[in-house]
Amino acid sequence: MSVTLKPIESREATHLASLADNKKIWDHVRDFFPHPYTTEHALEFIQSKASENPPTSMGIYFMNDLVGVIGIDRMKDVFRNTGYLGYWIGEAYWNKNIATEAVKLMTTYGFETMKLTKIQAGVFDFNKPSMRVLEKAGFELEGILKKSAIKNDQVCDDYIYGVVNPDING
Questions:
Q1: Distance between CA 144 and CA 112 in Å, rounded?
Q2: What is the pTM of this model?
Q3: How many CB atoms lie within 10 A of CB 47?
Q4: Residue 168: what pLDDT?
Q5: Minimal CA–CA distance to 126: which of 107, 140, 144?
Q6: Share of the chain above pLDDT 90, in %
Q7: Residue 49 has pLDDT above 60, yes or no
Q8: What is the model's pLDDT at position 11?
Q9: Alpha carbon 64 to chain centroid distance?
Q10: Rounded to whole angstroms, how far apart are CA atoms 82 and 150?
Q11: Which residue of 51, 91, 97, 126 has the fewest C-beta atoms within 10 A of its own C-beta?
Q12: Rounded CA gap, 96 and 133, in Å?
């Protein structure tokens, strides 16, 4: 499988927008993700991430084509060594194991480059495919936050998955 991660370039903004402007994607991500998703949104996102060192958001590339985005946001205060993982894949690339490979790559990056102790991710209760992605990538279900999220005007559970850096003692 030829999945790689790298920063997205501004010249890819139109393509990024064409992938992201899909209600089926928006239905499974947090509401700060715009819908409709325009080229301007893509450019803003790319530019906002350009100065990060190390980068915390990457394009997911399959066979050298941009197919989605993945990122880890470092949490704050006493949770500063924990990262919160988020990702999405263009619909044409679903069910091809790309997301699982991307999560594995980003997890390694989070531990090795970002020096995180732990990475966690939240998944809406109705997003079973994303739960499987995380489980295949080595994440474990750590808890269910009952009725803690609202998506599309529906109250839902948030499934919290996590993985601990294997190099951390204690």
A1: 28
A2: 0.95
A3: 11
A4: 84
A5: 144
A6: 96
A7: yes
A8: 96
A9: 19
A10: 24
A11: 51
A12: 11
Amino acid at 37: Y
pLDDT tens for 17-41 read 999 999 999 999 999 999 999 999 9
DSSP the chain: --EEEEPPPGGGHHHHHHHH--HHHHTTS-TTS-SS--HHHHHHHHHHHTT-SS-SEEEEEETTEEEEEEEEEE--GGGTTEEEEEEEE-GGGTTSSHHHHHHHHHHHHHHHTS--SEEEEEEETT-HHHHHHHHHTT-EEEEEEEEEEEETTEEEEEEEEEEE-TT---
Give the residue among 24, 117, 20 at the shortest CA–CA distance from 70: 20
Strands in 3-6's sheet, in edge-to-edge order, are: 3-6, 57-62, 65-74, 82-89, 118-124, 154-164, 140-151
Q: Show the tokens assigned to 165.
A: 């850096």
Segment 63-73, tens digit of pLDDT = 999 999 999 99
C-alpha to C-alpha distance for 127 and 87, rounded to whole angstroms: 13
Q: Which whole number is the average pLDDT over 156-164? A: 98
